[in-house]
Write a structure and sequence with these properties.
This protein is mostly helical and 446 residues long. The protein has a single domain, classed as MFS general substrate transporter like domains (Growth Hormone, Chain: A). 76% of the residues lie in helices and 1% in strands. It has 20 helices and two strands. The chain has a two-stranded antiparallel ribbon. Helix 1 packs antiparallel against helix 6. The protein is globular and about 65 Å long. The two termini are 29 Å apart.
């Protein structure tokens, strides 16, 4: 079968743009997680009650996840109306701006209770941006990719996310090693200010990317959907529920990245900030290699079995990881951290961009992915706050947190077991399990 000349190189170009853009965007998002666990309780909240300050700081991490469903409704609508490229550029600029502003905020010592209010407002903007980022990048790469390699190419979005988290962690290692007074006065601001560079580079990369052939064909033939949400809920409501359930697996990431870090560096365990940041860094290095390998495997054997391995495996190894932290054994913690996050979680993380995206037709794909994932991610974001409460007043009940995390892996398993296998379906026929013909008033010509 011949390939149109204009299509040559586009899958790789789209995957590269998704990787770099997601890495830059999630650098911004994940430096907040490290700061929320290590810095913000002392900078923005009342230090006289450390346990409450930590709880409130972790709650601000979850605020962005609460904003995500709202952002998904807005950005999903316009992504399916105006195209994938415009949303990808907009989300990057919004994330860069909001993250830079966090680095400029006054502290509680300077302006009192206004400081955490301003922090929450900036965090909400981060959440709105993240709501459209992955759905836009995933839709872009999926619709550019060859049908038989959609898993591999769409996995670059999540590889980019892990790359961003790795960069954020590596940036925070020397920052966390600063003397306490320098760390809390100016040191913590540096990673946030760096978002100006992040936004500028990402803008140049994404502006050069072409719109997807699938979206352009949809717009030129049937026209774009006037109300994507209405069509989505009528024709794909079951798939939206599956994506919501599947997205709860992200709880493994938030518990690993934020709560486990705070627990390991607490007085009850006593591991150093730098050593625990290295656990995350090395786990992400492994994830960078594991994600495309798992995704390629899904192109051969299907999305469902690979996703199930990731969801069920993470529930088991997360328990072992938190146990290792409780023993204070750093080598064991490092090993199990790499296995949990770098290997097991990467199976679900690497395959979900294709797995979820293939459930929907082109005209509502971005809306379906954005709304479904962001509702699930909202629960995952606040899983950190729930974990802090479940761990008890002294924050040492790690086994209850492990069981809580395992329980959140059950809906993803059910979602995968109930889903169709789509890895062999041609891209233009995805989503055809429903009555997909829209009525005349629901579409508008491009």
């Amino acid at each position: 079968m011949s390939v149109p000349a204009e299509a040559v190189g586009q899958p790789k170009k789209a995957a590269a743009a998704a990787w770099i853009g997601s890495a830059l965007e999630y650098y911004d998002f994940f430096i907040y997680g490290s700061a929320a666990a290590l810095i913000f309780p002392k900078v923005f909240f009342d230090e006289s009650d450390p346990a409450t300050a930590t709880l409130l700081s972790l709650a601000t991490f979850g605020v962005a996840y609460a904003a995500r469903p709202v952002g998904a409704l807005f950005l999903g609508h316009f992504g399916d109306r105006t195209g994938r490229k415009k949303i990808m550029v907009f989300t990057l600029l919004l994330m860069g701006l909001s993250t830079f502003l966090i680095g400029c905020l006054p502290t509680r010592a300077q302006v009192g209770s206004l400081a955490p209010v301003l922090l929450v407002l900036c965090r909400i903007l981060q959440g709105v941006s993240a709501a459209g980022e992955q759905a836009g990048a995933n839709s872009m790469t999926l619709e550019h990719a060859p049908s038989h390699r959609r898993g591999f190419f769409t996995s670059f979005t999540l590889s980019g996310t892990q790359g961003g988290q790795l960069i954020a962690t590596l940036v925070f290692i020397p920052i966390a090693a600063l003397p306490e007074d320098q760390l809390l006065s100016w040191g913590w601001r540096i990673p946030f200010w760096a978002s100006v560079v992040v936004a500028a580079v990402g803008y140049v990369i994404r502006r050069r990317l072409e719109e997807t052939p699938a979206f352009e064909k949809q717009a030129a033939t049937e026209g774009v959907v006037k109300l994507p949400l209405a069509v989505l809920l009528r024709e794909h409501w079951a798939d939206v529920l599956r994506v919501i359930g599947g997205a709860l697996v992200a709880s493994v990431s938030t518990i690993f990245t934020v709560w486990a870090l705070a627990y390991a560096t607490s007085d009850s365990v006593g591991m150093s900030r730098s050593s625990m940041l290295w656990v995350g860094a090395l786990a992400n290095v492994v994830a960078l290699a594991a994600i495309p390998l798992w995704a390629s495997l899904s192109d051969r054997i299907g999305r469902r079995p690979v996703f199930l391995i990731g969801a069920a495996g993470s529930a088991i190894t997360m328990f072992l990881y938190l146990w290792a932290i409780s023993t204070g054994n750093y080598p064991l913690t490092l090993l199990l951290g790499i296995v949990t996050f770098g290997v097991d979680y990467s199976a679900a993380n690497g395959v979900w961009p294709a797995f979820y995206g293939e459930m929907f037709s082109t005209r509502v794909r971005l809306s379906g992915m954005a709304i479904g994932t962001q509702i699930g991610f909202a629960v995952a974001g606040f899983a950190v706050t729930f974990a802090a409460q479940i761990a008890g007043p002294d924050g040492t009940d790690w086994s209850s947190v492990a069981l809580f995390t395992a329980a959140l892996c059950v809906p993803p398993v059910i979602a995968a077991l109930s889903a169709r296998e789509t890895h062999k379906i041609q891209t233009e026929h995805l989503g055809e399990h429903t009555a997909h013909q829209a009525s005349q008033p629901e579409t508008v010509s491009a």
